Amino acid sequence: MAAASVPLRLAGHGLGNRLAFERDPLGFLLHQRQYGDLVRIDDELYMVNTPALVEQVLKNTNSTFSITRDLLGEEIDGSRASEDLAQWMRARHVAGRGVNRSGLRAAGDRMAAVVARHAEAWRDTGTIDAITALEDLSARLIAEFCLGPDPGRVPALVARLQDARLPGALPWPGWAPSLRGRRLHRVERELAADVSRLIEERGTRPEGPASVVVDQLIDACGQGVLTHQGAVGVVVSTLFAAHETTAAALAWLLLLLDRHPQVRRQVVDEVDRELGGRLPTAGDLPRLAITGAVVKETLRLYPPLWYLERTVAEPAELGGHRLHPGQRVGLSPFALHRDARLYDQPATFHPARWTDRPAHTRLPGYAYLPFGAGPRMCLGAHFGTVAMTTTTATLTAGYQVTRAADCTPTFDTRTILQPRGLTLDITDRAPMSRTYR
């Protein structure tokens, strides 16, 4: 089919469409779907709205399509020389073997203890800023998983990098971006230097608790599969992406449980029944079916990667329409996950849809992609779901987590999808059966 133009009554012309997108990104993405499977926003940008077209774009990233903008919309070198791209993908593949199911089983038993220590501190405080506290937690979880139980300054540096990358809510003076850029590069260098040092120390002193990701990268360096710098680069990118997306998704999950007390009761009953007052281990997670469904449904309604974009690298046909190099294709997991052609009552929080096997199996491929898909899928996707399930089970076992009475969270789409302004009250539900150092 030919690409449809967004009609005049939506915004009037290409510039108007872009202004409408900036004013209300999520509303615009939901609205534009009615104009076709492939919608022309302007001469440069097209939106795809079906799993089949999404699959065509994401599976062919690194060939027909490339990534040329980061999460902040800033230009990056997405074309990469072929050898540079090949080395980057080798590093991702090696790291991915560590961030897979077997790697997480090896380290999963330590996760709940980390969550419990943070939860005790939150309880002592009483009220927390959700995003700040959960980013601190997720940075610690992913840093320990990638680098071992003593990641030094890395969690704090990951948080500083996040602050440096995030644009201000208000416009800055004209000279400010250069200061922001210098600060960003300084923190990036510090983080890379600390990761490099920890990898080197692990290589010279391999004794101690296993650090699955780094150990796999060190082995690959020893075999000449990738360079030390390549190993550092993939760890840094994994740290940053996984901590931010996991924290945002956890914030949405806790807000949803507060809004749906009947679902929270189901989670609490399951955790009490399956864990009996102890903390979860990796081996417990398959039995926490309701908790896992809550995680999956949260990621459907509020996928951290709410919008993805690819640049056409070579002439392509998409949905019967010819695209040319330099044009861009956008896709929205947020909009796709709320498509009534794919999901019953798509705007409703209904975790049971994932435990109803027939409903689950009816979904086509690429209809559910909270962490993207294809060769550039987020490396921390499986880590994120395991961390979310473990955190949810740990918190519901011992604490009551509720939205603070004076807080009204709003959608924040400056980078990933977050509930801006969410504050949570943390109180004891029942005494924990163990203490943690």
UniProtKB/TrEMBL annotation:
Which organism was this protein described from? Streptomyces roseochromogenus subsp. oscitans DS 12.976
Matches recorded under PROSITE patterns: CYTOCHROME_P450
Cite the InterPro entries for this sequence.
Cyt_P450, Cyt_P450_CS, Cyt_P450_E_grp-IV, Cyt_P450_sf, Cytochrome_P450_monoxygenase
Q: Which GO terms describe its molecular function?
A: heme binding; iron ion binding; monooxygenase activity; oxidoreductase activity, acting on paired donors, with incorporation or reduction of molecular oxygen
Keywords, alphabetical:
Heme, Iron, Metal-binding, Monooxygenase, Oxidoreductase
Instruction: Identify its protein family.
Output: Belongs to the cytochrome P450 family.
Q: Which cofactor does it need?
A: heme
Q: What is this protein's record name? A: Cytochrome P450
Q: Which PANTHER family match?
A: CYTOCHROME P450, CYTOCHROME P450 12A4, MITOCHONDRIAL-RELATED
